[in-house]
What we know:
This protein has helices spanning 3-8, 20-28, 33-44, 49-60, 65-87, 93-107, 117-125, 132-140, 142-147, 150-157, 161-183, 199-203, 206-215, 219-236, 240-254, 258-261, 267-279, 284-295, 304-313, 315-335, 343-356, 358-364, 374-399, 416-424, 426-441, 445-451, 466-476, 486-501, 505-518, 524-533, 542-558, 562-566.
Amino acid sequence: AGPGQAAMYAGLQELGVANGEDLKETLTNCTEPLKAIEQFQTENGVLLPSLQSALPFLDLHGTPRLEFHQSVFDELREKLLERVSAIALEGKVEERYKKLEDLLEKSFSLVKMPSIQPVVMCVMKHLPKVPEKKLKLVMADKDLYKACAVEVKRQIWQDNQALFGDEVSPLLKQYILEKENTLFSNDISVLHNFFSPSPKTRRQGEVVQKLTQMIGKNVKLYDMVLQFLRTLFLRTRNVHYCTLRAELLMSLHDLEISEICTVDPCHKFTWCLDACIREKFVDNKRARELQGFLDGVKKGQEQVLGDLSMILCDPFAINTLALSTIRHLQDLVGQDTLPRESPDLLLLLRMLSLGQGAWDMIDSQVFKEPKMEAELITKFLPMLMSFVVDDHTYNVDQKLPSEEKGPIPYPSTIPEAFTKFLQENRIACEIGLYYILHITKQRNKNAFLRLLPALVETFSDLAFSDIFLHLLTGNLTLLGDEFALEEFCTSLFDGFFLTACSRKENVHRHVLRLLLHLHHKVAPAKLESLQKALEPTKQSGEAVKELYNQLTEKLELRKPSPAEVTETPSMELPLPTVPTPASR
């Protein structure tokens, strides 16, 4: 018997059951093999008197004994599996687990025998506490570890953080990759963007579901995952880990796993914020609730602010808070009210501030709310409101019958203070960027071109972050017709995008995405110069080269075919078009 055969009979000898080796020995040392075989069959067969007369009947039908024994064995194993699952639910708790522990003790030596393994695994799965010794044996054997149920793995993981980390790590990588793929997706649309899926839909994602299953009701494992997320967020500053932190909690909330939800101090806050994210707006009632949670942080419990800040740092939360802020500012213009007089607006700023300060708070371990700069409320927000007023005034002015003096031009300058705020104040920058997204979505070309120069230098280069560029490229599709105008393209590409393309690969990618979508709208001369400017360098990554090649192919297809060229009724033959060299 080879190693495969040996595995088939693993552990039988310890139980005093004869196996293939015993038969081999018997046959090697006997004088009459046929008699020896018959005796072996009698001793080790199914010991039912009524069966002895029936077996020859099967022989007449040409049914091999192996087939018969195999079917009996399969049937018995099914019955045993059913019985184990039943024992796990009946009688007093101590008694049922005592039965299962006895069964495990008897059967564990056969755990490597493929035909019996499912039974042993089933017994372990139903034991809330598998004996430590058995867990160690399972952990030490790769195949056994792989074969055991997640219920058993949880018991192994909770005392082996490194092993659990190895299991979780590829899932976290996959999650971040999925987010980045969405941000760089070739489908550019104002209707379907990064923030379109509802929270409930997002929680159905593969990674969140797998992590939820791995954690089960185990608070220790949940804490470990949160620790991994905090560590990775600190190491990479990647805000998608904050999204996963909130999604995981809400996924456990959906399954009503109170064992975890009741001990996570962020649960109710996250639940309330989740409803706001679903509506993409923080209404007054929920604003009061959220404020209650923030005001309710007691002395000595400030550490919860670190978790709350991470929940608020989730881009989906920031998006909701920023959209709500812009909406509030517009309402205030209509009500002739100043920002400082609106408690709802101040609460939104407080939460934005907490979210944007998450990294610093977790890094410094100083758990207190960041101080809000008064100038943000007294100067910056009124300035944004004045832009809204400028638009109203201009629109009204356009409708008035023009006097001799001619139409009043759209204001083209921006206050220096606006640019300075965007460079120096994180919250002002975030709100300013969302205001620019808002006017782009309204197809307000004048306001867009007026404010665009302020984006070249922003706080921590936020205007060149993937989320902003993803949303901006989507909204720019609404201004598609403007791309035919030299002035518009020069402001947008030369004045903004191309200032960062060479130093920021992600910007290069976003511009190529935009052109792949809108190239047919761009004036030919401008398109040609952009194609030259965007040619990848040796240092460019694969993604940029791939996008550039796609763009080149599209532009090649747009060129008139030679047949069309010869038909042009012209005295002089036009010069043949020279295709631009594709990137090497």
